[in-house]
Fold DUF4178 domain-containing protein.
Amino acid sequence: MSLRKLRSIKCTSCAAPLTLHGGGHKVRTLNCEFCGAVMDARKHFSVLHKFSHQEKPFSPFKIGMQGQIKGIDFTMIGMVAWEDVEAFQWVDMMLFSPTHGYAWLTYYNAHLVFSRRTRDIPNLNIWNLAPKYEFSAGDKKYKFFERYRAKVVYVAGELTWIAKKDDSSHMIEAIAPPYMYSVEHNGSEIEYGLGEYIENPDTVYKSFGVSQKQPKPKTVHPAQPYHSTILEPLSKAARPFAALAAALVIIIGLFFGGSTVFNEQISSSALLKGSTTHEFTVTRPARLMELTLDTQLKNAWGFFDISVRKGANDIFSFGKNVSYYEGVEGGESWSEGSRSAKAHFKVPEAGSYMLHIKMAEGGKGETGTTPPTTSARITLKQGYISNHYFVLLLILTGIAALAGFLSKIFFESKRWKSVLGEDDE
């Protein structure tokens, strides 16, 4: 991009050298960054008033820089710093293009927004709307974000209006990320603007010759769209697997839970002595068998020795601990543990088998050693297929599938926190 011919003058207040960047016929004032004088560009740069003791805000951009935004050549001709009632500051760089006119580049907490005036008027009175209320302007729908009051605290360079220190305006912002709709009312005029959040600010910095590496934003801008380079693709990839795992869990639970081959109630006295059950027949030895032990334990525990027998021989043995406690504390009921236990095993071959069960140990209360009185019901199923691995797969893929959704919720909560407070979202 070729540089346009520049002109230099001296500030009519402090005689500091100032550069005119050819900001077009709408330029109304030239503002001295050294003494704060606001000079009338149409009346021989006579001083209109002064910004006394103004402090230059931080901005990576400088007046006179030239670069491209959205393929349009712009020159930065002016700078305005604003401050709201909570002392938050942001900087607007006024841009000029001989072919596309005027625009603004806003720098706030390392965020960049490119905006221009718009003729799109809201379809309702937006001055009394609540956050998140939707309205239309032009072909877009926006959510009302906030209203606030801000004042001018610094000016420099060429501007198309006359700025005075502490000039204040009522501001409204509404969002449809990456777009931001703004309304500014200074008491006599209302201006409407349409901004677009710049998602890749490095391209703008590079284009305008900002050589120093700029920090990444640490906050969420109102118009910043949500993107996640990891969680969104992960969620998308995990969804079909989560759906498959859920289907398998349901199918296995409904159709492959096994068929009952044995069901017997054992008395409390038989449990204490040890009892051998009636025979049961296994016809599908290649599949798992599921044993369910249901007791009537209450505020007690018991340890049960269980053996699988074929004839007079023990095939294998295992133990199951059952404990259950309940009570009322502070007017609230509570319980812990379970009255039931399950075990899974395989028998070596088809045929007739028996179970031998005995309560080997037990106690009432948490530390008691007196065996409690309880009967037990033993239920045995064959052909059982465990869905535990598919449940685990469902949990893992479900978490992955929800990761992007939850991440977006967290992102949105940070976006709206300043206007909705801690409890919303």
